[in-house]
What does this fold into?
Amino acid sequence: MKKTDWRIIAGTTIVGVVCLIWLFVSGGLIWLALEESERAAAAVAIGPRIALLFLMWAVSLVAVWMVLGYLVRYFMTAPARLLENAQVLLGTDVKRSLVPDGSPENKKLTELINQLVEQREALREEMDQRVQEASRNTELEKNRLAALMSELTQSVVVCNLDGRILLYNNRARTQFRALSKAPSVAGGVELIGLGRSIYSVFDRKLVAHALENIQHRLQRGAAMPSAQFVTTTQAGQLLRVQMTPVRAVKIPEEGSDDAPLQTNEVTGFVLMLDNITRDFEEDSEKDRVLYSLTEGSRAAIANAQAAVEVLEYPDLEPEMRERLLCVVRDEIHSLGKRIEEMQTSSANSLRSRWPLEEMLGADLIEAAIRRIEASLPVKASTDQVDTSLWLKVESFSLLQALIHLAGKLQVECQVQTIQLRLQSNGQRACLDMLWSPLEEGTKAVIGWEMEQIKVGTETMSLTVQDVLTRHSGDSWVEREAETGRAFFRLLLPLATPQEELAAGTFLRSESRPEYYDFDLFKSSELSRSLDDSLLTELTYTVFDTEATGLNPAGGDETIQIGAVRIVNNKLLYHEFFEQLIDPKRTIPPETIPIHGITPEMVKGQPTIESVLPAFHTFAQETILVAHNAAFDLRCFQVKEKATGVVFDHPVLDTLLLSAVVHPNQESHRLEAIAERFNVTIIGRHTAMGDAMVTAEIFMKMIPLLAEKGIHTLGEARAAAQKTFYARLKY
Amino acid sequence: MSAKVLIADDEQNILISLEFLMKREGYQVSVAHDGQEAIDAVAKDKPNLMLLDAMMPKKTGFEVCQEIRSNPDNADIIILMLTAKGRDTDMAKGLALGADAYMVKPFSTKELAQKVRELLGAAG
It folds into this structure.
């Protein structure tokens, strides 16, 4: 039953009261105007019929009630209903047309609103279509990029400014495999992966130096600046790296036809890697061959020539003549042999040396001064510097060499201040490091260029001489007679002063991000403490282990580890870690049906001492996720002493999180949860299979946790702690 | 008195010719077969001129040159470097370290004799 509108009641009451007042006032006035006799007559006439009067009043009120009701419905309820309906339309995406009702104006208004809704729907559909089209295009472009990149024979890695990997191709993956210290265990996946830091492979200083170089060139207006460097990796490989900046793009203002402009702001960088270890070895061999051909032959020819010329003297003793002829025969024979040797090894063609890049000499001096002062308690300044000189150098190793020399001066000769000088001797540049020696002579410093370069605690495999030989240069110590100063002179090749000859050689558009995640460009807020980080933004290593039993402290051993990564809310199926481990003990036969790992399978596999460190590297800077993580971590903890690695990562346990999400469920076993989340189980009870299942259910839990108001890592950990299961201890 | 010439080279095959040549030019000739021997020879009997090979065992010609020049008493020894290293950097290095002249192997013995005469003539 509908409630009566208060407005009708109020209206009727007001009309009733007004009628009553009117009746009484009119009656009263008439009464006052009447004579005494007339009053009596009126009382007699009306008195008994007064009820009729009130009855009529009541009847007319009923009429008023009905009229009011109609009017309210017609003029007020209908617009109010229209208002509500319109608000629903405005607030939601519901598409429906309203039924016209009420006054003609109200009906027209309803029709107008219907038209507006239709118009809105049309616009929205058009918009959706465009968005879809745009994202299809983006996807298409991404895929095209991906296809091209996977075809590239060069390894390509793209990083953001923090050094996090955003993209890499298959070639890079195989190359990193060669760089891995434990190739048989992790196969390089512990080094390369989306979101991982490139600095685990390259020295941070090296990358920073190259970036700095690029910035300098950008500021000077170079069109396509790039930098190169050569580095040795931990595994002893020699890598040549070309770095090209990824620059921010300025979108032109709407309406203008300009193409998007690249700005000077660097947002990341592309690294192209070449493993030149073999080239380098071949190079050394070539050098040797070349040397024996040129300098060796020179000596032989000189010997023969001198002998022949002496033979021409007429007054030669027969004995001397015989000796000289012997010399000539000997040298000709040795030359012939040398040529033969050369021929057999002439498969070598003369090829790549170190990549030398052109650099303004003054920039190199400036960088050297900065570097020396930063790493040594030595004051460095410039002497004379010819600012017009361009050098062809590999600046990183050259700077290391300079720091090494300055460091030796400081330690062994107590030199506090040095000067750097740069001038040209016509064909070459002379880079001099000057100092004022405390004692006469340069004997103390002779031979330093033959020592391995040492900077801080790091020792390079190269000597100063090696670095200069690679520059086709040389070095020595000299003294200035006038000033008494001594100096190391480094002869370096000059470059013709020009900048950036080959523009457009950089193949940015060609790359198959088989492995890419450009969203990582955005997430550089690593400074935020992890606890405040959103669960959807973190990088996870989801893992599982198989063991010989359930008592790690009592001698049970881990026999398999499997793990996958989740980056930016995506499960990366290709970045996985799977390894059998030789437990160095028997596997109880009764456990074999559970994990399916037989003693034969683990024979010859690496032991926990080498597998755990590799897994630790794989999991570095991520959150560990496991089902019943406490057990796995206990297994690792028992091995801390033997392996030297501590797993102090933040940990999330899907068993505990399941209890948070579904507190009323009885079972939180992996199978039960997988069933609830409709996750297909493949290979259950292999470490890898379980890790995959765990990862999938973990990803399904994240939105459910969000519904419970759990958004950050800190909140998730606190919630897990509170559940009943958290009180179980292993 | 004729000038004293020290020939330092590890190659016997060139020593024969050079020794013969210098003797024929009328100099007092002594020979050294490596860098250390050369330094010892200089210490024992200071020559007027040295024919110094750049590449020798024990001590290279560059080191010998530098070491001899580090003693002010030896400032008047004329050093003529002979080397198979034909690069301009080596030449610059030799001259920077105190050699008076530099000849690249192979050379004509006549030119060598001429050069030695010039150097000794200029000196004294």
Observations:
- Residues 347-352, 498-516, 518-528 of chain A have pLDDT under 50 and may be disordered.
- Chain A touches chain B at residues 294-296, 298-299, 301-307, 309-310, 313, 320, 323-324, 327, 330-331, 425, 427-428, 441-443, 446, 472-474, 476-478, 489, 491 (CB under 8 Å).
- The two ends of chain A are 65 Å apart (CA to CA).
- Chain A has 20 helices and 20 strands.
